[in-house]
Amino acid sequence: MLLHKVKNGLVLPILLFLVLQVMAQEQTARVKFLIGDADLLPNGKTTWNKIALNGQVRQGDRIRTRLASRVELEMPDKSVIRVNENSIFDVSKLINDASGDEMNFTLWAGNMWARFSKAVNTRQSRKVESPSAVVAIRGTELEMVVNEQQTTTVRVFEGRVAVTSKLGQGEVLVESSQETEVRSGENPTQPRKFETQEQNRQQSALILQLNPLQRHYTDQSVIGRGIELTGQTSPGAKVTADGVQLAVAANGNIRDFLPAREGLNEFTVVAELNGETTQNRVGFFVNTQEPQIRFSTPLVAGILNRRDYSLSGAIFDPTPQDKVRVFINGEIVADVEGRGSFNRTIILNEGKNTIQLRAVDRSENVVEKSEVLFLDTVKPIITITQPANPNFLRNEPPSPPDKFINLKDQRFTQEIRGIIIDPEPSSGLKSILINGQPVKPRTDGSFEADIQLVRGENRILIQAEDLAGNIVRETNRVITIR
Prior knowledge:
The chain is mainly beta. The protein contains three helices and 39 strands. Strand 10 and strand 11 form a beta hairpin.
């Protein structure tokens, strides 16, 4: 019975002690401020998560910031660490228990700024490491930068830090308004003074961070509704764009619309708080109208018999400050701003030629025209099979006495036979004329026609033309009737 009581008396204190130990060890940092996109890799995990405002960061977690992003962490002792853009930062240790009060961090790459609360006892330890250095801290405002060569720069604004090299030797004490540099494998450089005015300006309490806009807008609806501008400023700040006040939430989130017109749009965005101002320039190009093309020599589908084809015209774009490039078959032929002309002689190949004209403005609005031209420079070939002899003599007796007709008025019918070929590339036959009389060939190219002759010498003119305008004439054929 006594043992049972002892056990019951011991169990509750032990459980309470264990719970307090777990609670003491589970120290967390809070995301106090967030701009842009940043990710968190929880301890022991392999998947990155988006960081959320007021979210918790625990021992062993890793933070990754992207371009134009920033994360501010508030530590359990109210110290503040700001992880700037393009940085990788680890919360290596957050402990406050019977074993001590420790905060260790690692900056692998990028830039961080921190203001650590002053130590109140010897149990407190604050360190920031990098691939090349270890910085021991006691109530300090400082900045650390780690570049691509793993060189660490430590800059102290207030207080003092001890900087040692991970692979080198020696330690330096860096005081207020001093900086040191630690190259990988080398000793820290001797501390030197630096100007704090610019840094103080950068670490100002007033923040204005605008999310990037698209460079080009081609949707016509933006003319009416405007372009949405979002970002972050210090809570309580007034924000204007070219003097027009923008909507700002109580937490500093900016969300409003900028008016948009065709062409280049630029605005000066100003944030103002307690007499302090900061500003950014934003711009975008609105281009909702396609280029327009007018031809002096139009691109018309057809059949040609000349190798050189001249194409010319004018280009016009109604969007102010726009620029247009004109391409013919992929080759640039004109580069104009707003309005201009173009001309290009195209050398055609026998047969089918595809001509592609493309006009592209600076916002990738495109106008395209495509036509097919057929080049045929080969003349048709005529072969006469009857009469086969170019100089054909035909004897015809005079008329009977009872039907006396003047010899000059006598008419004779002569059959002409032959074949016509339109060699490849064939555009097709347009016409055949024998002494001005149209003749229609068969599908195989053969033809026959009856022509009227008079007594005496008859010169025969045979002409053939294809659809491309190639003409062949035969003029040396004579039929003589005696």
